[in-house]
Design brief:
The chain is 54% helix and 8% strand. The chain has a four-stranded antiparallel sheet. The chain has 367 residues and is an alpha+beta fold. Helix 8 (242-250) packs antiparallel against helix 9 (255-266). It has helices at residues 2-13, 25-46, 48-63, 69-93, 101-128, 140-156, 207-213, 242-250, 255-266, 274-291, 295-327; strands at 159-166, 172-180, 183-190, 199-204.
Length: 367
């Protein structure tokens, strides 16, 4: 699905101008029709018959989990996936006439359901795989011993964190490499490694052993529950590339031209400039970091929030400087004359190229 959507986006780029606005709507509609038709055919051939058994297995796994807020959310998600599967099945069972207005309407209605399965079908698959039972964890004595060794390695900077996930009981599990005397041991931690209270719950000889014997990962969360899917993103607002604004400044003759480029870079609203988009990126990254609910996430989120505020102040400074520059109504002085390249005349088409000098073909041989 990701490859299909990427190919469609590449084809849609050919229907837009350099600012991202659609200028060939009929070609764009044909691209979307081809994308949805291919997605429906792929769903019918490789997945439709497995959707209901997968949902049943995922629901069965949820029934064995301890009640929690995320378990209720997953149950609701499975219900939405089931409804989307029914909608897709109806579209497959009653396809509209190819090329008709009814087909375009049917595709517009079924694509969000295909996008839901492409984005969140993996959640159902992960839940269905929760039947795996981890091995019993360490005894209290082993846990205390290995936790002490891991904390000592952490203080030395020799506990290398490798991967983390959440178990179905809500614990944060992290596997790490504990280095002692040039020897590396794989250990599993439970809890936030940067907060008090974390402990070692397992020691393993190989990564494969750790994966097989640790509690399985449950699907990770999302930053914004109501955000659009990566497969059904809204059309991006048109914007001017920063490189284009830079070229305009290099090619400018008057202060007003540079002023307009600076204002374009810092303007807000629907067609926000690159500086504003960078600030939005920092704000969203800070939101993500804070949502991790870890000590390190809180620290980094605070740093990103501070950078965002600094960039916000910088945006106002850029606009103020741009307005002051435009108010000068100045132009570049004439002594900054352009230095044009020397363009050599090209020979006419019918002109015979010059004869190269004769090559010396004599070769001296030594007997």
């Amino acid at each position: 699905m990701a490859v299909l959507v990427q190919r469609a986006e590449t084809d849609l780029d050919a229907t837009r101008d350099r600012y991202g606005r659609t200028i060939h709507p009929q070609q764009a509609a044909a691209v979307l029709t081809r994308r949805t038709t291919t997605a429906l055919d792929t769903y019918a051939a490789g997945f439709a018959q497995y959707a209901e058994p997968l949902l049943d297995a995922a629901r069965g796994a949820l029934a064995t989990m301890t009640p929690a807020r995320h378990v209720t959310a997953w149950r609701d998600l499975l219900d939405v996936l089931a409804a989307s599967h029914s909608h897709i099945a109806r579209a497959l069972g009653e396809p509209a006439v190819r090329g008709s207005a009814a087909e375009r309407e049917q595709h517009a209605a079924v694509w969000p359901h295909l996008a839901l399965w492409a984005e969140y079908g993996s959640v159902a698959a992960d839940l269905a795989d929760q039947h795996h039972q981890p091995r019993p964890e360490m005894t209290a004595e082993e846990r205390q011993l290995w936790t002490g060794r891991a904390r000592a390695a952490r203080s030395r900077g020799e506990l290398d964190l490798s991967e983390s996930w959440y178990a179905s009981d809500g614990r944060l599990i992290t596997w790490a490499y504990l280095v002692e005397d040039d020897t590396s041991t794989i250990v599993a931690l439970a809890g936030d490694p940067d907060a008090p209270g974390w402990e070692v719950i397992g020691r393993f000889d190989t990564e494969m052993e750790a994966v097989q014997e640790l509690p399985p990962a449950v699907p990770p969360g999302v930053l914004r529950p109501n955000a659009s899917s990566r497969y059904s993103r809204p059309e991006a607002a048109p914007e001017r590339p920063l490189q284009e604004l830079l070229r305009e400044v290099v090619e400018a003759r008057t202060a007003s031209e540079v002023s307009e480029a600076l204002v374009s870079a810092a303007q807000t609203g629907y067609q926000s400039g690159p500086i504003v988009r960078l600030r939005e990126l920092l704000e969203t990254a800070a939101e993500f970091s804070l949502a991790l609910d870890t000590v390190q996430g809180q620290r980094i989120g605070g740093r990103l929030s501070a950078l965002s505020q600094q960039l916000k102040a910088l945006t106002y400074e850029v606009i103020d400087a741009a307005e002051d520059l435009g108010a000068t109504v100045a132009v570049l002085p004439p002594h900054r004359a352009p230095v044009l390249p020397r363009i050599r005349p090209r020979p006419a088409v019918e002109t015979t190229p010059p004869v190269p000098p004769p090559r010396n073909t004599s070769v001296t041989r030594r007997q």
